[in-house]
Amino acid sequence: MAKLTGVYGSIKPSVPQTSPHPDAPGQVENSAGGYVFQIDDFTRLERFLILGSSEGTYYVGATKLTRDNAKCVERCIAQDGGKTVSTIVGISTAGRAPKNDQALFALAQCVAFGDLSTRKHALANLPNVARIGTHLFQFLEYLKGMRSNQTEGAPKMRWNRSLRNGIADWYLAKEAQNLAYQMVKYQSRRVDGTVGWSHRDILRATHAGYGRHASAEHKALFDWATKGLHGATEEKDLPELIRQFEALKNEKNVKVIIAAIEKYNLTREMIPTEALNDVKVWEALLQRMPMNAMIRNLGKMSQIGLLTTFSDATKLVVSKLGNKEYLLKSRVHPVQVLSALLTYKNGRGTRGSLVWDVVSPVIDGLDEAFYGTFPNAGTTNLNYYIGVDCSASMTWTNLCGVPGLQPIVGAMAMAMVTLQNEPYCHTAGYSTVMKDLSLTKRMRLDQTVQLALRSGAGGTDCAKPYQDALDKKMPVDVFLNLTDNETWAGKKHPFKALEEYRQKSGRNAYQIVVGMTATNFTIADPKDARSLDVAGFDTAVPSVVSKFVTGDQGGFGDVEEEMEVG
User: What is the pTM of this model?
Assistant: First the structure.
């Protein structure tokens, strides 16, 4: 077999991962004491926007990790404010992240710390990132913390003309009926335990209805929000939804409430709380319930007796969960589905005392829906080695702030996405030892998650998949390594193990490193053109990987031919 040439040269004696490798002068020490590579600030920005940092990692507390990511955002703003805003908007609007919190936080930083051009760009894109009322409340709470006067007592927001106009435009850009829906569905909200915001507070601060080009309907809505129903100067200009909302506040007749739900497409936030204990009310709500709300309320609908094995409501839920076009249109993120699956199958909520009887068709529907939340990616028909980091650091914290969703659980779920899309895969878990997982696409997602949890323990050696493939003489085209990049336990650096596989096998394999935490480390050498870093649970991962491994013009030639790395 011909020797493979490339950017690394000949293979040298092994250097343990706890020491920097002389062939990689750019290496840095990770939080576990191993030496890896540092990603650039904009790559870390993407990781932060997708994965967040509210839970910390095995080695780094949540506060420090969040602070480090906030500083990274500030560096990105200083380097290129326009690119930073565009990155935030792109990830948020495409639904690539499980939560929108990080995008709102980073956009607030752009307004607080950016130059004039960056601030204008950020405020102009506020409606694209803060798409609902709750998002607006979160954005303002983040911004208040960054711009407030730090005096005695609770900090107060410092408003200026550009901010007032930017927030007012959020309201004025919405058609009156849509704005009315936002104002009654998201009336007010506490943010991170604070006093919180309401539309009344915001409209009084921005003076949105004065001196601006507000329609009569908008002015009536603003008066209603700030002064109450009878404070509207032109009550006749209020949308019918507002009048119905006001009329139902003290309504006790369930039939009247159901009729209003059906006629005006009311949501559960718009009806009296007492009515939410009636199964017929939930049946009416379910008919046009948004997908995200339906997934969040599966436990309640089961507890109240609406969802049973053979009920029409269960069949409707399963039908919606199986509609991939509707899932994608609804911006349902796979983490939301996985979180619902982990919670629902336990028969009890993570908070409070709500318990329910688990309905098997709903579990199966959630399992199918998880895969439906990823946009279609072309099948490459290449040979994939999927290595899942099952070390202790992958089982310590929660991913994306979801209880029970540990990084190892997320990694296994991402592995199953590839398994569903690619026909030729080998799956293995590793720590300091290897364990074949023998996954098949017929396995249910929650079953594979339990398999992963039973495999997690020990130190981290991210070189294991490459060494295992070489030992077993596997003809791998693509290594998919799902890890937190906290490798330290091996006697050989991962990038050198990959190099050795390429040289000894004669196969110029690609490497995809899926980072499962929002740190600034990676095992992939940035000089290696056939390696790619992506963030775990980015919904774009399947299509990005597919394009990356099929876009190289060289392809995978005859193994007897000499191939060039990079």
Answer: 0.86
